[in-house]
Amino acid sequence: MFIDGQWLEPGPSFEVTNPANGEVIGAVADGAKEHAAAAIDAAHRVFPAWSTSTAYARAEVLSKAHQLMLERKQELAELMTTEQGKPLKASLNEVQYAADFLRWFAEEAKRIYGETIPSARADQRFLVRYQAVGVVAAITPWNYPISMITRKVAPALAAGCTVVLKPAEATPLCAIAVFKILQEAGVPDGVVNLVTAQDPKPIGEEFCTNPLVKKLTFTGSTPVGKKLAQDCAPQLKRVSMELGGHAPFIVFDDADPEHAAKGASLVKFLNTGQACISPNRMFVQRDIVEPFVATLEKRVAVMQAGNGLQPGISIGPLVNEAAVSKVATQVEDAVAKGATLHAGGQRLTDDELANGHFYAPTVLSQVTPEMLIYREETFGPVAPVIVFDDYDEVIEMANDTHYGLAAYIYTQNLSRAMRTFEALNFGIIGINDINPTSAAAPFGGMNESGLGREGAREGIAEYLETKLGGFSI
Length: 473
Ligand code: ADP
Hints:
Elements (H helix, E strand, L loop, with lengths): L1 E2 L2 E2 L5 E5 L6 E6 L3 H19 L3 H17 L1 H12 L3 H21 L6 E3 L6 E9 L2 E5 L7 H13 L2 E5 L5 H13 L7 E3 L5 H10 L3 E7 L2 H11 L5 E5 L4 E5 L5 H13 L9 E7 L3 H13 L19 H16 L3 E4 L18 E4 L6 H4 L6 E7 L2 H9 L6 E5 L3 H10 L4 E4 L18 E2 L4 H6 L2 E9 L1
Parallel strand pairs: 7-8, 7-10, 8-9, 10-11, 12-13, 12-17, 13-16, 15-16, 17-18
Antiparallel strand pairs: 1-2, 3-4, 5-6, 6-20, 11-19, 14-15
Helix pairs in contact: 1-7, 2-4, 2-5, 2-6, 3-4, 4-5, 7-8, 9-10
The structure holds adenosine-5'-diphosphate.
The site of adenosine-5'-diphosphate has 14 residues, from helix 7 and helix 8.
């Protein structure tokens, strides 16, 4: 743990394992409530100095961190693959994405512009300024263990906030590597603090109840997000929530089914389906279902599962046994209720895969609303295909979810693309595009997928309060 500029002496610890083979790869400090409280105290103590430092000084530190992260790209990516499981190429991409946030918000720090507003009174002037909200508590997930940290810490620091972060218990080593970079980049003592813990609950409680914390930013599951938002409500703490999703992937019959299926398989099996923007329902218009499914099948057939450090691997392990069971349950339920299994549909336990948490990339068709997979987030490598006939039907089905994070549309018809883009109740929509994410673009969900946005101009606004001055002159 890193509190007030000090790495804590070893005390109680917990082990971190490689999900591809079960090997223990490290042990980290098992933090308790009092560590979270000490970190919050430190962050509170240095807040006045950090929040009044110049935007140029804060930008300088973030730029240095950006540079250090890129210099360490290979070693960070190897650590990520070992700790989280995604193939090395995907880890390299994630480190780049993580570094992008450091640079983007280094630049944005200097663009926290205020406003003057004309008054109806001749002797009055209005001035609006934006200032840092205060100490920020951040909780991050394991599926993107480096970029989810910089997506929060970079805008918070740019805005002038100080931070206490608790990473996911499955991926604390990536968090430690990021905090070493922040320290080396010159972030002053106490401005960023890291509390690792095996049991997230006591740390979460401290974050939500300590009055010195002014804002909680969370990425994780919808149930935990709701609980934390409730716990923050008595003190009306500001919250940002990036929660679950159940993305529709709509392919209209004027699209090239093979091109669409290629896109679908790339985004579906990315990170073995462990992404909140992973397509969870593939709606394909009746005339092109056959070539779409055939292409998916072909692509899945050549995917190699295994340890992501080995070349040619595209399917890494799932995070743990519970994740494998959840996927297996959804697939069994779908097949029992009449879905057709085209590929996969089983755990992978051959040879060295036996010690990891592997599930075969799976393609299902004839999926219907009665099946669990139609409503529940899968977070695993399963592509469920659903046939549709007309436009109104598919819009209604796509919007029939309490989630509202990502959606995808494939069509060559411009007006259909625009109408669908406007009709879908999702915060991030890819139109013939499977990667509608960037440090420069707002990321976040509608409905129960979250509150607030990360990245882009909106991403820094989450860490700012609006202050109005009315001047009589
Ligand atoms: P997932 O199902 O993707 O693991 P979680 O929401 O359980 O999603 O985990 C996301 C993050 O939230 C992790 O850092 C985890 O430790 C943390 N977390 C889980 N439960 C709680 C809780 N009750 N209080 C605070 N943090 C929690």
